[in-house]
Structure formats: C-alpha cells, structure tokens
Structure to design on (701 residues):
C-alpha cells in the first residue's frame, strides 16, 4: 500500500481537488491511498463549492469530505507528499524533517514522473502504480536539473477568487495529476 | 613595483592612453592649421667704436660697446626709430603698435644687434625689418656721443640685410604636435596611475598576484544577467562557463593529496561574491568526473543552495546538528551524477555555536567517510566568524573573490584572518571577470603564478606520484577546452596552445 498525502493551505480547494482527481484517475485497486490536509486548514469544512462542481464535471467524487489540519504523523506515514507551493513544502518538512526527500511540488512531481517514464522505469521497480509512486523519491534526484530548468511553479490559491481563476487552477491541478497518473501507469514498450 | 607591473598597469589602461595620445596631438595639429601664419624677417647690425687706433683702444671700445648693446636694442622700439619707418612705408598703424611686431636682441657678449619684424606677409616683414635697421643706423649716428672733432664715436654697419622669409615663423606645427604627443603621454599615464590608485578592487589576475601568494585555482567570467538563475555545469554543460568550473575542478583535484576524502570550505570576504555559485558548480563538476561528492550549505546566515537547486531547504545541516533527523534522512540527491546535497536546514539563531559543536565535527567525519569530496558553502569571512570556525575542521579553504566588487584590502584581510586561525588556504577563485580580461589572462594568468608555495610543493608531490603509473594524468590537456568544433580542427598539442590549462601549465614549469 502506497500512501499519498496532498497538502495546501485551507484544505478546501487545491489539495482536495488533487486528492479526489488522483483517487478517480489511478486504476481501481492499485494499492494507493490518497489523503489531504492543510497548513492552515478550515477544519471540518467540505470542499469549496466551485471546486466541488469542477470535480463533478471531471468525473470525480467531491462528497464526504472534511478539511483537516496538517499533522506530523500524517507526514511521517506518507510515502509521498504533494504540495502546491514552496511554503507548504517548508511546513511539511518543518513538521517532519525526514520527509524532505518524499515531498514534492505537484508540478515538480508531474515533470519528474514524466521524465522517469520517458527514460524508462528501472527494472528493479515493479510495473504497478503503487510501487512506482513509492520509488519516485529515490529516482527524482537525477532529473532535478531538467525540472529546475523548466521551472516548477507553485499552484496559486484560488480560494474566494473568480470562477475563472478556479477553472484555471483546477485545470493546472488536473494536468499535473494526469502527468503523474500517465507516468506511473505507462507500459514500457 | 617592477617594470613588468608598470607595463601591466599601462596595458590595463591602454585605451585611455591611446585616446589621450590621439586627442592631444590632434588638438595641437588642428590649432596650428587654424592659426594665421606669420612670417619673421631678421636684419643684423654690427656695432663698433670709431677712432680706435690702438689694440687697447679697440679692446676698451669693444667692452664699451657690449655694455651699451642693451640700450641700442631698447632704442629700436622707440618712436624715434619707428615713427620714420611708419611714415616711410606708409603703414596705417602707430609706431607703438609697430613696436609690438619688432624685436631687437643682442646675443650675449656680442656686438651684433638682431632686428626682427613679423608680419602676415613675408615681403612686408622683410621690408619692415630692413627699414627699421636702416633707420636705426641713422638714429644712432644722431644720438651717439661725438668726439672732440664732432665725429660720431659709434659706427653701425648692417651686416645681414633682411631677407624675405620662405616659411612662416608661426605656427610651428611640428613643435606643437610634438608638445601634443608629450602632453598626451603624460595625461594618459597620469590617468592610468590615478585610476589604479583610486580603484581598490581586485579586478584581475595581476592585481591578485600583487596581493597574495595564494594560488589562483580558477578564473570565472561574469555571467550575463539573463543567465543568473542557471547552474552552468548542469544547465549548459557545453558552455564556456561550465568549462571554467571544470577547469577549477581539475585544479582542485590536484589538491587531493593522499587517498582519503577532501573537505573544501568555499567562502569569500563579503556576501554576494558568488561563493555559492562556485560551490554548487564545483561540486557538480567534481561529481561529473566520478567523484562521490556532497555539497553542504553551511551558510546558516543566508543559505541559497536549496533555492538554487530547486530543493527544500527547511531540513538539512541545522536539522541534523539539532538532532531532529539523521544525515541519511535529509541528504538529498541532485543530478545525473548522484551528487548529494545537504541543505542548510532552518536558519538557527546561533550558527557559530552549532558549527563549532562536537556534533559538527562528527558530521564532517561521517560525510567524509561516504564521499571523496565534501564541498562546504560557508558564510563570508568579514561579517561573521562562521567560516573561520569551520576552517579548522576542513582540509582547506577556497576563497572566492568577486573581481568587480571586493576591495583588495578586504580580500587581504580575509586571507590574513584565515592564516591567523591556521587554516590551510588552498587558493583563490577569481569570479565575475569581464569576458575581455578572461581572454587576456590566458596569455599570462596561470603561467605567471607567484613562485612555489605550499600548493606548488604538493603539485610536485602529485606529479611524482602520478609519474610512476603508466599513464600520467594531465586532465587540462586531455579535455578540450575550446568548443568541440574548434577542438576537432586542432587536436592534440594545438588544444593546449589555444588555452594553457592551469594545472597543465604548472606541471610544465621547470622544477626549482
């Protein structure tokens, strides 16, 4: 079982979107669990309505959600932590320094996963999404220079912004999620 | 300062010197050409005493005449002489005005009176000089004392008539241009000296050498602003910038005396001199050639390594020193060659305390056990003591000097501070050199290092050791440092001629 943790600020917009999209798009029974939390979570709140609507349109389930505050033990038990901004990454690593090698910006992990898949998954990594996701921290280092050159941008907070901003942010999150899912489910030719 | 450094000084300001040498003579030439030419004509008169019959009379007469010569010369410009000339020649000016164009001189100890007149027209000059001298002869006859018989005692004879001059007497173009050249030279040299004394920055290899005996480990050109965020060795591995860092790495490889790991402390006098850039690229270049390298950001005041490499800096050195994580947990990997990076970790309130702790020494030992080279980016020396504290726990110190900003006195103070704490100074990296100077330095830079230092002796040691195996290693020659295309055209020895590599050149120098 590979555990993913998605982190943003309020845990009502970006991280729930990524969480529910990953859950919806990773193959069923892949052995991956996805959770999310916020560095300043609006604890107990449901997914922000504009995001919930976009999730529904994208074929993901926005129901049954309650925002949670980021806890050190969530970080400790996660195999991979995905954050939206550099500030979140610092917060995650501040909660548990040993998570530094497992914590990635969403855009960064999308790019790294694509590069790893393009270079061909190493033979010692089983060809299933859970094992591949778990192997990414170990494989990321060698691709970092390319990711740096492309720039791994933060995904900005759309909370209380216009519907347009929400749509754009959601599209960005969905694209990066697709990158990751495509990379870990790729069949080596 | 020897002759060489004087020439060096002029070479550095050769542009100013050339400008000055062009401007002043041109100015002199231009003014000479614009000036109205004037002509001077001279007549000569011989003055002697009459009625001298004996030799002693003659001798006395000559003395008398000599004493009077100044009076005769003055007489020439009086209206008594000039008014008749004005009338005779029908000049429109007054006698006084004419006096300004007429001069009379008696060369010392002679009885010859030279009468010169100047005029824009050569013929007029001759006419005036002639008329004045004739008039003087008449006036002298009137004013000279007479003897008892009423005869004039002084006789004036014209010996040289005034001739029409062929060339103008003014302006003297040749002399003016010559003065212009001298003036230009003087101004140029003064400018160079003034600039040199007012500019207290390091600027170039020559001035670094006059400052310290420490070897020059590398020369890095200034990066254009558009590339400031890049890591040249990783981002533009074929670029000239990357090649400069590889050259530095090659020189650093020669410092690795013995089989154990080497711990390099990279620091500078002041913030912003590029020590982190040098540390990052040096570490990468060393990893590239197969060394196991770890880069440690020990600048706990203003850490930049994490941001530069796109890594998270919140967990790292300080985290390990505070016991919040193990080294293996927070050491990150970067790049195709498996370079390890230990970022700064959260900035602590007491960096010196942390860096001088026993835990730090243990950590360095642990890093050394798993790596061939440990590259440590430390805070600058002048503002804080962090680097000095660390310098005692490392194999050696590399000081990065921004040639365009650090003052020579500041760099000297930095090097002295390191010597005072018994740090081993590996050498200096001259950073942000202008591209032009970078090229120029190839001619004399590495070859002109000061005479054998501790480093030189270790290089000799390495050379002796490397000679024993079959193939001695001369990386600077093997690695073409010109763009691939040009290197292909001029392989082998030609490559070495194009750019004498630091280490290779040092090895080539005769042993003393």
């Amino acid at each position: 079982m590979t555990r993913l943790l998605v982190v943003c600020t309020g845990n009502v917009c970006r991280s729930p979107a990524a969480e529910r999209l990953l859950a919806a798009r990773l193959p069923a029974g892949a052995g991956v669990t996805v959770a999310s939390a916020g560095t300043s979570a609006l604890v107990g709140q449901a997914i922000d309505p504009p995001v919930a609507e976009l999730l529904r349109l994208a074929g993901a389930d926005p129901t049954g959600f309650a925002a949670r505050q980021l806890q050190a033990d969530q970080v400790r038990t996660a195999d991979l932590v995905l954050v939206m901004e550099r500030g979140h990454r610092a917060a995650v690593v501040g909660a548990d320094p040993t998570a530094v090698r497992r914590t990635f910006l969403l855009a960064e992990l999308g790019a790294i996963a694509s590069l790893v898949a393009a270079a061909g998954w190493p033979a010692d990594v089983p060809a299933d999404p859970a094992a591949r996701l778990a192997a990414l921290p170990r494989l990321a280092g060698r691709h970092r220079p390319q990711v740096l050159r492309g720039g791994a941008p933060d995904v900005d907070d759309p909370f209380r912004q216009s519907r347009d901003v929400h749509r754009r942010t959601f599209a960005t999150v969905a694209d990066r999620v697709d990158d990751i899912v495509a990379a870990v489910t790729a069949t080596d030719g | 300062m020897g002759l060489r450094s004087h020439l060096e000084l002029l070479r550095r300001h050769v542009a100013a010197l050339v400008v000055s040498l062009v401007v002043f003579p041109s100015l002199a030439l231009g003014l000479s050409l614009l000036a109205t030419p004037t002509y001077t004509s001279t007549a000569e008169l011989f003055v002697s005493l009459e009625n001298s019959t004996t030799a002693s009379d003659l001798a006395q007469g000559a003395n008398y005449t000599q004493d009077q010569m100044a009076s005769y010369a003055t007489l020439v410009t009086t209206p008594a002489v000039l008014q008749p000339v004005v009338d005779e020649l029908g000049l429109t000016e007054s006698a006084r005005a004419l006096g300004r164009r007429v001069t009379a001189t008696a060369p010392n100890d002679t009885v010859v009176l030279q009468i010169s007149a100047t005029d824009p027209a050569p013929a007029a000059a001759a006419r005036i000089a002639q008329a004045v001298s004739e008039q003087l002869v008449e006036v002298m006859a009137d004013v000279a004392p007479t003897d008892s018989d009423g005869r004039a005692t002084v006789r004036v004879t014209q010996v040289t008539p005034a001739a029409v001059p062929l060339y103008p007497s003014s302006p003297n173009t040749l002399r003016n241009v010559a003065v212009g050249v001298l003036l230009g030279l003087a101004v140029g040299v003064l400018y160079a000296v003034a600039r040199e004394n007012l500019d207290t920055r390091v600027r170039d290899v020559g001035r670094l050498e006059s400052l310290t005996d420490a070897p020059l480990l590398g020369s890095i050109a200034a990066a254009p602003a558009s590339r400031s965020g890049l890591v040249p060795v990783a981002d533009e591995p074929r670029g000239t910038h990357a090649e400069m860092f590889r050259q530095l790495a090659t020189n650093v490889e020669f410092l690795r005396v013995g089989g154990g790991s080497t711990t390099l402390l990279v620091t500078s006098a002041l913030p912003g001199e590029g020590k982190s850039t040098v540390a990052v690229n040096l570490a990468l270049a060393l990893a590239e050639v197969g060394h196991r390298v770890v880069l440690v950001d020990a600048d706990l005041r203003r850490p930049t390594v994490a941001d530069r490499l796109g890594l998270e800096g919140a967990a790292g050195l300080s985290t390990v020193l505070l016991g919040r994580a193990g080294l293996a947990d927070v050491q990150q990997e970067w790049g195709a060659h498996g370079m390890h990076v230990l970022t700064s970790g959260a900035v602590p309130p007491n960096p010196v305390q942390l860096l001088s702790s026993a835990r730090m020494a243990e950590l360095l030992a642990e890093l050394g056990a798993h790596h061939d080279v440990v590259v440590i980016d430390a805070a600058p020396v002048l503002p804080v003591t962090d680097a000095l504290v660390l310098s005692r726990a490392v194999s050696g110190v590399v000081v990065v000097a921004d040639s365009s900003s650090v003052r020579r006195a500041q760099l000297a103070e930095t090097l002295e501070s390191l010597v005072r704490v018994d740090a081993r100074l590996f050498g200096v990296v001259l950073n942000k050199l202008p591209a032009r100077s970078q090229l120029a330095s190839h001619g004399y830079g590495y070859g002109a290092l000061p005479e054998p230092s501790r480093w030189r002796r270790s290089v000799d040691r390495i050379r002796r050791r490397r000679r024993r195996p079959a193939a001695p290693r001369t990386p600077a020659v093997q690695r073409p440092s010109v763009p691939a295309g040009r290197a292909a055209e001029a392989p082998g020895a030609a490559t070495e001629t194009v750019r004498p590599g630091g280490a290779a050149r040092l090895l080539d120098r005769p042993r003393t």
